[in-house]
Predict the 3D structure of the following.
Amino acid sequence: MIIDSLNGLERYFFMHKSFEKAYKFLKSHDLELMEEGKHIIDGDDVFASVTNGQGKQPEEALLEAHDSYIDIQLLITGDETMGWKDRSTCNDETADVRPDNDIIFFDDVPDIYFTLEPRHIAIFFPHDAHAPMIGEGQIKKVVVKVKL
């Protein structure tokens, strides 16, 4: 897991060839005006999903993980807290496994919580189980999915 500002994403271009594409997309759009839904950046290799939803209580936010994609999650507006746990220590896989959507859920409790401010990012790799959308009020965010 990496936590940084949007501008800090440049530091991680060496980690994946498509991080620069994600960065250019995020920097070239007015994120506050961006419509909800899927936005194609580079086919199935890099795409963004914009959501605007009500924040959840910590006990409502399930840990999730992905096998095929890295998440670059950017908070646009609101206050978002996220939970994190090393996936290798998760024991309680839920019955809600969605391989077609590259997502698996866990009933485990996060080991740590952290809060993002607008225009900050959290990068989650397949070994990072994460519980997003924790907070009060509306949370608007964009998640750029980068295929491994």
Summary: Residues 55 and 133 are 5 Å apart (CA to CA). The mean pLDDT is 94.
